[in-house]
Write a structure and sequence with these properties.
heterodimer, A: about 280 residues, mainly alpha, MetI-like fold, 2 domains, 13 helices, 2 strands, globular, B: about 270 residues, 12 helices, about 75% helix, about 0% strand
């Protein structure tokens, strides 16, 4: 058992050995792949042969910022991500509050399962289900007709609805966990000190669950920024960032431009993560 | 904060409504798998078992299911090993750059899937000169599955503390004996929960898969997506979707039985 003795006496060596394989995988291979992608974004492409030219150029980023279509697509995607996040937060908060502070212990367990279950159902299946519901003659138009309304059809509204639906559990669960940790005595104390419900909500509940809401928003934001599937299923002819990247990898075969475009969601996400790091949101994931 | 009766009822009604909204699309898919109408209008025109028979004989769906299960099993196995190692290193040792390591583990799920997808696609093809195929899917999936195992194991280690391991060492057990007889048994249910999440994550993934799968390998999500817009295949796709919905009850039931506690985070973090 000589080797185990060595490992016991030298914790540094043990940590190093434990850490080496995952770090080789993520730190070297994965980060390396991301770095290589980023480098590719600064390369050009021969417009005749479509070959990647390994010469440094800022042309891709220049195109990305100056060509109107790409700016529109970028802003549209960020706008959709923001709207989806807001819709989810507005729906998730009351549900999470009911689960954590009103429901009995037993109901709580059932509700957690009820919220979690759809997460295990396939992403595609859910997007597909909305395609059926939003189509002409689907359930949405059937429900809306008595009110003199109709289905929004396939388009941006459908994309926002579908994505908000898809990511809702990712918002409910962190907020629920955050509210669970908030002691009931704090709410009572606030009431005893004369605060109305609105004041307690604003000054006690929201500040404490804010990191949890931010944690949920990391999911909703990141997942929306990279999505190109839902928009193809329910978005009609609309495009999001993901579609531009996808088309440039596939049909247009312009990897450098796709890489440049793909840095947009990364930069947005990194900025977002850096901004929320201090709130402690990352421990709520 | 005192919750009046009205407020409680209001919150209850809102929650019920939200859950109704969540389950309606899923229920509709299951119902539509029996719908005689191929375009799935509402209300259904009649009920039939025809699509279920057709789906049972669909070779494409069956082959894709097999690929999906194989990929998910291998990716889960890899992420169990790597995630546990990383969690042990981070929870039991203090070193420089410790926070960056945990950020690095979260990165593959924090970044949009399309970024991970084309980064790996580019690395496999142009940097490493590999042909895309079964193995590249497994590697890609393992990359974003590590975090679920890591988070579950780390949360468990944090709760356990190091006393039992120290006692084992003091009694003369070596590093490996301690792991085998003390640490591993204590981690078992956390590993199962993390592994289950990893399996589900891999089984359902489509974006990264699109960029890392070869032309011949089709996972079930890829098969569904490729057949989604074919009118003839729509009822069969719908049956597969219904099966997936019903099958998703199994892992959630298992996970609930395993974890017992309900307030672990989505990826198992606390």
């Amino acid at each position: 058992m000589a080797s185990t003795g060595v490992l016991h006496r030298r914790p540094g060596l043990r940590a190093g050995l434990l850490l080496a394989p995952p770090m080789l995988w993520l730190g070297v291979a994965y980060l390396g792949a991301l770095a290589a992608l980023f480098v590719t974004a600064f390369w050009g492409q021969n417009s005749f042969t479509g070959e990647v030219q390994r010469t440094w150029t800022l042309r891709n980023f220049h195109d990305l910022l100056t060509i109107g279509v790409y700016r529109t697509v970028t802003l549209r995607t960020i706008g959709i991500a923001a709207l989806v996040t807001v819709v989810d937060a507005v729906i998730a908060f009351p549900v999470a509050f009911f689960m954590a502070k009103v429901a009995s212990r037993r109901t709580q367990g059932i509700l957690v399962v009820a919220v979690l279950m759809p997460l295990w159902a396939s992403y595609l299946v859910k997007a597909y289900a909305w395609r059926g519901m939003l189509g002409t003659g689907g359930l949405v138009s059937w429900v809306a007709r008595p009110f003199g309304l109709d289905t929004p059809g396939y388009g941006l509204t459908a994309v926002i609805l579908t994505l908000a639906y898809l990511w809702l559990p990712f918002m409910i669960l962190p907020i629920y966990a955050g509210l669970e940790r908030l002691p009931g005595s704090l709410l009572e104390a606030s009431a005893d000190l004369g605060a109305r419900n609105g004041t307690t909500l604003r000054r006690v509940v929201l500040p404490t669950v804010f990191p949890a809401i931010v944690a949920g928003s990391i999911f909703t934001f990141s997942l929306t920024l990279g999505d190109y599937i839902a928009v193809r299923i329910v978005g009609g002819a609309n495009q999001m960032l993901g579609n531009v990247v996808y088309d440039n990898v596939g049909a247009a075969n312009n990897l450098p431009f796709a890489a440049a475009m793909a840095t947009v969601p990364v930069v947005v996400m990194l900025a977002y993560l850096a901004a929320v790091r201090r709130t402690g949101a990352l421990d709520n994931l | 904060m005192t919750l009046s009766r009205g407020l409680r009822t209001g919150l209850l009604a809102f929650t019920v409504l939200a859950l109704l909204l969540v389950y309606t699309p899923l229920a509709l898919v299951v119902l539509n798998s029996f719908n005689t109408d191929k375009s799935f209008g509402w209300p259904p025109s009649g009920l039939t078992l025809e699509w279920w028979t057709a789906a049972a004989h669909s070779d494409g769906a069956r082959a894709a299911l097999l690929v999906s299960v194989e990929v998910a099993l291998l990716a889960t196995a890899l992420s169990l090993v790597l995630g546990t190692m990383a969690a042990l290193a981070l929870q039991r040792h203090r070193f420089f750059g410790r926070n960056s390591v945990s950020l690095l583990i979260i990165l593959p799920i924090a970044l949009p899937g399309i970024v991970t997808g084309i980064a790996l696609n580019n690395a496999f093809r142009t940097v490493l000169g590999l042909e895309l195929g079964f193995l590249t899917i497994v590697v890609a999936h393992a990359t974003f599955c590590i975090v679920t195992v890591f988070n579950n194991v780390q949360a468990r280690l944090r709760r356990l503390g190091g006393n039992l391991e120290e006692a084992s060492m003091d009694l003369g057990a070596g590093t490996f004996t301690t792991f085998r007889l003390v640490t591993f048994p204590l981690l078992r249910s956390a590993l199962l929960a993390g592994g289950l999440l990893a399996f589900a994550l891999s089984f359902d993934e489509i974006i990264v898969t699109t960029f890392t799968a070869g032309a011949r390998q089709q996972t079930l999500p890829l098969w569904i997506f490729n057949n989604l817009f074919r009118p003839n295949q729509a009822p069969v796709v719908n049956v597969v979707a219904a099966v997936l919905i019903v099958a998703s009850i199994i892992p959630i039931w298992l996970a609930q039985r395993l974890s017992g506690s309900q307030n672990e985070g989505l990826t198992g973090a606390r």
